[in-house]
Every structure is written in structure tokens, then in C-alpha cells.
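Review form for a predicted model. The reviewer records the input and the model, then writes brief findings.
Reviewer: anonymous (R2)
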Amino acid sequence: MMGIAYEKVHGLEAGNHPEYAAWRHFSSIGYSGAYCEGGPILLLIRAAALDVLTSLNTFNSRQDACSRFTEAQLTIHQEHSNLILSTIRSADTVHVVRSFNEIYTSLLVQECYPGLTAEAMASLFIALGSEMLAQITAAIMEAPYSYRAGWPDLTMTNGEQMLWAEVKTTDQLHMSQISTLHRMKPLLPGCVRVVQLV
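Model under review:
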């Protein structure tokens, strides 16, 4: 009903970490990216807008702008949404990677969004582009705390196409996933699919 592809992948040793197993599978066939749900998108937004988020920071703290959750900053600075979006639209890969490296020094960020690398984030930003990232940000701004959850487990690219995959074993889509995917799917380039490990 949602127009999402469904794929079964056989023979993977999922154990307690099916997302990681699926990430390794797609990595082995030429994709790069991450397995931490919406982490890559939220951190790309924060990295692309880091300078303006720093200038708006209540505590005049770049460190706080680096470590504070993206959804919190989009809520706090809601009246500056246009400025944030315009900053994202003008971001380039060098700036995003530099800002990501600064943000990802935080152990809290690493714990919340494991497995990210500058190379993977650069690939994702290049595949998305600044305009598409701004459009996704604008959609998240409609309800930042609602749309922080429910993203596909995998955010990956092979350099030509984006892959957004929700990894399942026996469970079904949750309401947060249905809500977020319903809103974001028209904006997400590439293939959105459910991958069941069997």
C-alpha cells in the first residue's frame, strides 16, 4: 500500500544485530553508508548547518551545537528555519565532512549513531545533494520530534543510487516507521525497501 519494495535475503547470520548483518551484505556488493536508522540524515543536516546553528546557539557554544540532537535544535530555532534551510542549500561536501568530523568527536554522538565514517557521509551527501537535503530538512521541521524516529535502518549509496532499507526478521513496520516513511518517501531518491532476513 505504501509502494515500498519488499526483498528477502537468505543465509545471513543476523544474530542480535540484523541491521548490521544487512549493512555488511550491502557493503559487500558495493554500497557504503550506515546502519543507525536516521542517524546519517540527522547528522548530515547538523553538519551542513553547523555554522548557523552555532551562531544561534543559546549558550554561544559550538560544542553544544555539535552535540545537541538535531531535532532539538530544529525545534529551538524554529523561527530561523529559512536561514537554516538556506545554509543547507549552500553547503558543499568539504564543509559537510569537516563539520561531521567535528561533531563526531563527541562520544555521545558516536554512541547514538555508531558506525559512521567521513567517507560514508561524504558519499551520502554527494548522492543526495544539498537541495534534496534541504527539502528533507524542511519536512522534518514540520514535526522534528516525530520525524526523528521511523527512518529505515540502512542509509546507503553505491555512488549512483541511494538505498533506504528497513531490516526485519519476524516483526512488522511500527507506526512511527509508517508515519515517517509515508511523509519522507516522496522526497527520498533511490530505492526504499523492506529487507527481511530469512
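Findings: The longest strand covers residues 162-168.
Further findings: DSSP finds eleven helices and five strands in the chain.
Recommendation: see findings above.
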